[in-house]
């Protein structure tokens, strides 16, 4: 089981008043959403988890190992990030070379590299585009390619920053199923999202940030069931809850339309 343990974490950008301060946060679940309003500190937390920025105080332990003590190669094998903007992650001449570049950071055997690249491209459905220039791909294809570059390294923990953004519906389905599959395969999958419908339907746990602090950690149904808290965070409840409230004056928690129909068919 993978676990992330954060203690006494403090971070401030040199050029901003924003302060991230997380006294204590433990993540052991395999499918976790990070939510919070714009500027709450979600991406900053991801930067700290990947080592892109270093905290001024505190520690992050992954599987009881101090993140700061990991070698660059160990770090790549431990945590991989899919950025919100895929273009920031792509710089090679072809789709195939893009994925191979990632694999080569952790593997030298040419046959293994070739197999890994083929598997990663097949998983995201980009095999037929392997000779294309990444910058000639559509936005959803670029995003899928950036996911393939991380899949190819097979890290223990996957961080997705707003994975649903810039994906079309079939790609959203593909990526959601892929994330669920990775979680079942004992990877930790953590995603920042503003999409409360997707969050409610997909995640076992949500950590909610506000003003650089964690103000809720627990099950999505507990979070959405606390109307004072959801209002305080400025986050919407799932659309099905809003419809039930508006149309039927029913203020119970519904995570998905299926959840609504299930709970109502039980009553009949
Ligand atoms: N490189 C930076 N330099 C200075 N300030 C920054 C930098 N990056 C982010 N910030 C500031 O830190 C705060 C937190 O930003 P962050 O991107 O972590 O929030 P977020 O919760 O991910 O927001 P969003 O949902 O809009 O992406 C914001 O006030 C932002 O302006």
3D structure, described in words:
This is Energy-coupling factor transporter ATP-binding protein. Its main location: membrane. Belongs to the ABC transporter superfamily. Pfam families: ABC_tran (PF00005). This protein is an alpha/beta fold. The chain has one domain (4-237): Rossmann fold (3-Layer(aba) Sandwich). 41% of the residues lie in helices and 21% in strands. The chain has 11 helices and 10 strands. It has helices spanning 42-50, 72-78, 95-104, 110-123, 139-151, 169-184, 196-202, 220-225, 227-233, 239-248, 257-267, and strands spanning 4-12, 19-27, 31-35, 57-62, 65-66, 79-82, 157-161, 188-192, 205-210, 213-218. The strands form 2 sheets. A 6-stranded mixed beta sheet has the order 6-7-8-3-9-10, sandwiched between helices. Strands 2-1-4-5 form a 4-stranded antiparallel beta sheet, covered by helices on one side. α3 crosses α4 (110-123) and α4 (110-123) crosses α5. It is globular, with a radius of gyration of 20 Å. The protein binds adenosine-5'-triphosphate.
């Amino acid at each position: 089981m993978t676990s992330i343990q954060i203690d006494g974490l403090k971070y401030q950008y040199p050029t901003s008043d924003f302060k991230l301060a997380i006294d204590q946060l433990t993540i052991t679940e395999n499918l976790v959403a990070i939510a919070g309003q714009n500027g709450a500190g979600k991406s900053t937390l991801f930067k700290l988890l990947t080592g892109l920025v270093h905290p001024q105080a505190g520690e992050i332990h992954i599987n009881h190992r101090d993140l700061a003590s990991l070698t660059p190669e160990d770090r790549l094998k431990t945590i991989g990030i899919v950025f919100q903007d895929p273009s920031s992650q792509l710089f090679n001449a072809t789709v195939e070379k893009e994925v191979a570049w990632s694999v080569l950071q952790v593997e030298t055997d040419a046959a293994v590299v070739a197999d890994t690249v083929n598997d990663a491209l097949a998983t995201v459905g980009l095999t037929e585009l392997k000779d294309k220039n990444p910058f000639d791909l559509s936005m959803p294809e670029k995003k899928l390619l950036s996911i393939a570059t991380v899949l190819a390294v097979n890290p223990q923990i996957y961080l997705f920053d707003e994975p649903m953004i810039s994906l079309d519906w079939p790609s959203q389905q593909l990526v959601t199923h892929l994330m669920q599959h990775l979680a079942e395969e004992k990877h930790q999958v953590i995603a920042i999202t503003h999409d409360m419908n997707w969050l409610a339907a997909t995640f076992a746990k949500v950590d909610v940030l506000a003003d650089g602090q964690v103000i809720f950690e627990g099950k999505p149904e507990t979070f959405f069931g606390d109307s004072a808290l959801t209002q305080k965070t400025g986050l919407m409840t799932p659309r099905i809850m809003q419809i039930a409230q508006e149309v039927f004056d029913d203020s119970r928690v519904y995570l998905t339309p299926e959840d609504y129909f299930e709970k109502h068919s039980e009553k009949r």
